[in-house]
Amino acid sequence: MAVTRRELLKGAAALGAAGALSHAVPGAAQAQTTQKKELVVAQGGDISKLDPHFSTSSNDIRWSFNIFDNLTSRHPDGKLYPGLALESKLQGQTTWVLKLRQGVKFHNGDPFTSADAKFSLERTYDANVKTMVATVFTTIDRIDAPDPYTLVITTKKPDPLLPARLAFYGGQIVPKKYLESVGNDAFNAKPVGTGPTRFLSWVKDDRLTLEGNPDYWGGKPDFDRLIVRSIPETAPRVAALLKGEVDIITQLPPDQEDRVRANAATRVDGALYAGLYVLAVNSKRPPLDNPLVKQALSLAIDRELIVKELWKGRGIVPSGPIAKGDNFFDPKLPPLAYNPSEAKERLKKSGYKGEEIFIETTVAYVSQDKAMSEAIAAMWKDVGVNVKVEVIEYSVRAQKNREKSFKGMYWSDPTSTLADPDGMMWRLLGPGGPQDYWRESKFDEMGAAARFSVDEKFRAEAYSQMTKVFLEHFPWLPVIQPYEDYGLQKYVEWTPNPNQQFEIRRFNFKFRRA
Amino acid sequence: MRGLLPFVVQRLFRALIALWLVSTVVFVVMRLSGDPVPLLLPPDAPISEMERVRRELGLDRPLPVQYAVFLGNTLKLDFGRSLHFRQPAFTVVRGYIAATLELGLTAFFLAALVAVPIGLLSAMKRNSVLDHAAMGFALIGQAAPTFFLGILFILLLSLKADLFPTSGRGGWQHLVLPALTLGAFTMASIARLTRSAVLEVLRADYIRTARAKGLGEMIVVAKHTLRNAAIPILTITALQFGTLLGGAVVTETVFSWPGIGRLAVQSIYNRDYPVVQCTVFLAAVMFIIINFAVDLLYGFLDPRARAS
């Protein structure tokens, strides 16, 4: 039912765009500057949790990253900056010494100290708390707080990515005293952090109201209030932007962007997704255990066409398993090639005899998955592959993922949580990882060694070698690295963050005043 | 009013059976449709963690045992803890009921208040321009899918004409478009049925008699026609309340209205058994209460209903 509705909604929206309606915008919304003191954001999904350790959903972390601070902070430029920790120094191979910011207060007035930082990180993997981020800090052996503004983290083995881990989900710092006195449920209902916005009220599935924190150590954000609405359907979300009811909308699909651009008061901005959209391969199933077959499948995909037609140009063709913007991304590596005649050659050489090859596609698990499946299936048929597209439901996908029982290929959107190949290809494709369907000893040795090395040169070489192995065996068929787009009023100055954080701190958000 | 009490008792008994059937169907269907545990945990959670969660939620026990526990708890209005919200399901759902009732009742009364007079007028001015126009709109109202109407209203009445907000819950202005959208089908059905019911009655002998004895047209319509046409109108109106609850699922999604329809859809996607069971159960209770009330009204309007 959801499928038809979604498709028809798109149709209805297109109808509106085609007609005179698309330019029908009331005059009040035409302004390029504003006197607004209230920022209204509409996102495509509901908020389910505000306790930052109980959710990894983008609809939740957008806001928990603004109610709370992390020890380190990843800015929209993709680089790491100081957060609640002013500096982090590695002593020896496994000891990180962090100097904490002084004079920071939680929203309830309690001072922030190393005891809160220690408590927060330990809470993530405390078996009694049962958080959703228990796997983030598994490299940590021990945390000490020798004085109120020093934190010493000892890892089990060298962990070059610890500062990166501290910047993402799981790393939000919660107040020890307040949390212990009110308990987890009350804390989730009325969260208290050190961040640039303070919690005011939350009506589930309707709106979250936050206020700008005047005492924020990074300066009060450029608004008095921040209102977050959830508008799940695309067409009403876009309409709310065009009408000027909201200032920013998330999850703007490429086919709606012309409407936003055509409107005098609004614009489109996006960030290249920190990750890839791939067809993940069950390489244990013949004939997908044959590298030549997978090379042929990759060569037969016209990715340029997919980017141009289905994504209206809002994406780039990947060059391998490392997303652009990540550590060790090699700009010299060419985009994955399209060469149907070479694909036919390799199929012939592989001894492929027309066995069925399955794509088990979801619908809107990743954006455009079904449309891309159909396009790719047509391209594969052209080179003589006997391809079958089957539609599976979200929960069936979750189950097959769990049981590792996919019949062939399925859509996945590997996210680079740490802006590093370790947090993406090694986390997912490594031995025992959630997408472990294929093993190659060289890949495994390099991946394991790079994980525990603090030698950047060695790591660069290791990931380059792993990319070579990857491009021979294709445990994923990378298809696109898309942009994640937002619709904005022109009076909003704001830069999206590739990792789905929604940065509204002073350095990244401003209303343009007259 | 002799015979009313056994009638009430009998209807009440039927209502309870219907409730039991509804909850059983929901219980079975939700369990047939897949395992919630992989959706609750991150994709790389170990098997031992999956089993711990399954045990904690009682999902490792045999189905008949789960069913018995479920029935016992349902009687106490305890639907278990939401897997997604980690709160008692009833507490979660309770927070959404007011929004749905506000929308549903507005749509319902809007539909009834507009549709009955229109149907009546159409019947009395049969084959006039007014009749054709009204029935034409009714046909559109019945044929157009809810989500299509919703988007159309947003584009025309909100974006273009700037009369109402595009979505969300707030003042009465926020209520207009979703209530119109949700009520359109119901309004159309009631208008069409009122028209045919009234036409039917207008042909009856007792109407001719009423007219023959010189009663004014107003009295003929108000006393003789409407009261006799009321039973089918009432039936369809009550049944339409079920359609409204179903339509709320789509309308609430299009207009981001924080009601139980949208909650139900989200909970189905999340495999949040307790919340789905609780919403369906409460929706069934609402529907059954309305029907029960209508049954009683029948008995009041038509003595023959009590006898059967």
Question: Would you write up a description of this structure?
Answer:
The complex is a heterodimer of chains A (514) and B (308). By secondary structure, chain A is an alpha+beta fold. Chain A contains 16 helices and 20 strands. In chain A, strands 1, 8, 9, 10, 11, 12, 13, 14, 15, 16, 17 and 18 form a 12-stranded mixed sheet that branches. A 4-stranded antiparallel sheet of chain A has the order 4-5-7-6, with helices on one face. A two-stranded antiparallel ribbon of chain A has the order 2-3. In chain A, strand 4 (85-91) and strand 5 (95-100) form a beta hairpin. The model of chain A is unreliable at 1-29 (pLDDT under 50). With 308 residues, chain B is an all-alpha fold. Chain B is 79% helix and 0% strand. Chain B has helices at residues 4-32, 37-40, 47-56, 63-75, 89-124, 129-143, 146-160, 172-202, 205-212, 217-254, 260-269, 273-301, 303-307. The radius of gyration of chain B is 24 Å and the shape is flat. Chains A and B meet through helix 1, helix 7 and helix 13 of A and helix 5, helix 7, helix 10 and helix 11 of B.
Question: What is the overall shape of chain B?
Answer: flat
Share in helix of chain B: over 70%
Helix content of chain A: 25-40%
Strand content of chain A: 15-25%
Low-confidence stretches of chain B: none
pLDDT averaged over residues of chain A: 91
